[in-house]
Amino acid sequence: QVQLVESGGGLVQTGGSLRLSCAASGIIFRNNAMGWYRQAPGKQREWVSSISAGGSTEYAVSVLGRFTLSRDNAKNTVYLQMKNLKPEDTAVYYCAADRGPLARRPTDYWGQGTQVTVSS
Known about the structure:
Elements: E1 3-7, E2 10-13, E3 18-25, E4 34-39, E5 46-51, E6 57-59, E7 67-72, E8 77-82, E9 91-97, E10 109-110, E11 114-119
Parallel strand pairs: 2-11
Antiparallel strand pairs: 1-3, 3-8, 4-5, 4-9, 5-6, 7-8, 9-10, 9-11
């Protein structure tokens, strides 16, 4: 059974930083593309960033230069480092995994989400 468990969300002021973690189990983690999505109140879920099994990363334009996605295969964990946070980054952040190594928008497995709130 695949499980993705997010952590690290919270309340931060504008300009602050947070690091989200997503710990995976039930998959051969090093073989899977991973990603983050977010959903703000009243809005559709949107893709934020992805990392391939080989470590190649992609970012949404809205977070480019502020967010950094990385993976630690020894710990079966991906990290989303978020800097210079803005109120519009407020959302529930979801970790996702793909069955394959290269998916640019992983969607096969999902975590339960972690709330990020940025106060102005």
